[in-house]
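During the reporting period the student researcher (J.K.) took over the structure-prediction task from the postdoctoral fellow and processed the backlog of single-chain submissions. One of the processed entries is reproduced below for the supervisory committee.
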Amino acid sequence: TTPYQHEANDALVKMHLNSVAFARDAGILQEYVDHDIRTMQPMLQRLKGMIEKTGEKEIALAGIFDRTACLYQLCMDLESTPGKRTFTFPYTTVLDVSRRIGQFTLTDRDMHELWLKPRLLGYAATLGVEINVSDIGPDNKVTVTLVE
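J.K. obtained the following C-alpha cells:
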C-alpha cells in the first residue's frame, strides 16, 4: 500500500529484470547473455586492442565499469581501486518489492548467477583477461578482481 523509496537506477534495474525474466521464461537466457556480449563487441574489441598494445590489464576493469554508463549507472556506489571493483548488488531492493507484489520471481542469486556474472566473465574473455566475480556478500556487495 506504500511505495518504496526509488533509487536513481530503478529504470535500468527494472529493464534488466524484465528482460532477464522474459529470456528465462522463454528458455533463451543463454542466448540473451550471448547477445549482450555480442552487442558490446565494438567497445570490447577497442579495449582489447589497447590491452594488447600496452599490456595494462586494468584497462579491462576501467572499460567494463568506469567508462560504461550501463554499469556505473547500475552500480550506484562503485568503488574503484587498482585491480578491483566493488559495488552493492543493484537488484536487491527492486527484487524484494517486486516479488512481494508478484511482478517477478527472480532472486538475487538468479540475477547474479544467470545474468551479471556470465556477462562480466564474457566481457573479460573477449578482452583476453581473467577476472574473478565474487558471490554476493553478507553486506550485499560484489567484488570483481583481475586474476594475475
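The committee noted the following: The first strand starts at residue 79 and ends at 81.
J.K. will present the remaining backlog at the next meeting.
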